[in-house]
Design a protein that fits this description.
single chain, mainly alpha, 5 helices, globular, ORMDL, ORML1 protein, transmembrane
Length: 153
């Protein structure tokens, strides 16, 4: 029994992305980012779309794939300390609805950015490399893998 703990989950990081309104809040946040970038006078529409895509994917990479541990005190004896948020999501079960949502959303944003930049080669390379930087770590084969020992501890 956990005395003084307000939640019933062993690790609340596992279920936070399934909480009520999280997907809507996420989509609204991306939309607000894009509106703010469009409101900057010297950014063209293609630049705003590319910046939206790159900033979104950078934030997603840092939040889901680079930061390890949990902000909560968990009774799992430090098991969550060695896992990224993506690896903790849904207790590590692959192909859940929240994992599918967070895999498909950067792809949709990539298609939108590519369309509105009219497939300009410079924007296309930036958007594609940004997309690959968040899709490759999501592969089930890379669950718990630390390439070149980066982010091992």
């Amino acid at each position: 029994m956990n005395v003084g703990v307000a939640h019933s989950e062993v690790n609340p990081n596992t279920r936070v992305m399934n909480s009520r309104g999280m997907w809507l809040t996420y989509a609204l946040g991306v939309g607000m980012l894009h509106i703010v970038l469009l409101s900057i006078p010297f950014f063209s529409v293609p630049v705003a779309w590319t910046l939206t895509n790159v900033i979104h994917n950078l934030g997603m990479y840092v939040f889901l794939h680079a930061v390890k541990g949990t902000p909560f005190e968990t009774p799992d004896q430090g098991k969550a300390r060695l896992l990224t948020h993506w690896e903790q999501l849904d207790y590590g079960v692959q192909f859940t609805s929240s994992r599918k949502f967070f895999t498909i959303s950067p792809i949709i944003l990539y298609f939108l950015a590519s369309f509105y930049t009219k497939y300009d080669p410079t924007h296309f390379i930036l958007n594609t490399s940004s997309l690959l930087s968040v899709l490759i770590p999501k592969l089930p084969q890379l669950h718990g893998v630390r390439i070149f020992g980066i982010n091992r501890y």
